[in-house]
Amino acid sequence: MTPRKLSLDELNRLSVDDFKKADKFPYCLILDDIRSLNNVGSVFRTADAFRAASIYLCGITGQPPHRDITKTALGATESVTWTYVADVDALVSQLRSDGWVVAAIEQAEGSTSLSDFKPDPNKRYAFVFGNEVTGVRQTVVEQADVVLEIPQFGTKHSLNIAVTAGIVCWEFLQKR
């Protein structure tokens, strides 16, 4: 039998109101100094798809409403809870005080390969993604409880931030 693509009605997706009421998975995404509004919008879609608790937009990261974010978010800015916090270091400090495990997604000495990461099912995680060129700030790397690195095997030394967020969210949910 040849597979048939499902129609949008057959996907049985949550409405925005139902999404807002639904239990979220115990993680949030922190976007710090993300230059590309398309990347921001893509991360909103990922956060919706994998039911993240929230997104924090920090530093120069653009905020909805903006047409470039909206174009790639496809409505996810309406479903996903988000907050702008100017100072990422203060946010990370506050989240750690509130019991969140802060995980910087960065290539660093002593980092843990994402494939080896074993999240504690009883803890909440805050995943920090940094600027497309300079990455996660050193001050955040120093505050982080863990630094996670995605194994790569090609000639490039980094992945697009939206791709990285998708990989991290999927891997986290698979390991819970």
From TrEMBL:
The keyword Methyltransferase applies. It comes from Spirosoma liriopis. The keyword Transferase applies. One of its GO terms (biological process) is methylation. Pfam families: SpoU_methylase (PF00588). Keywords: Methyltransferase, Transferase. This is RNA methyltransferase. Residues 28-170 form the tRNA/rRNA methyltransferase SpoU type domain. One of its GO terms (molecular function) is methyltransferase activity.
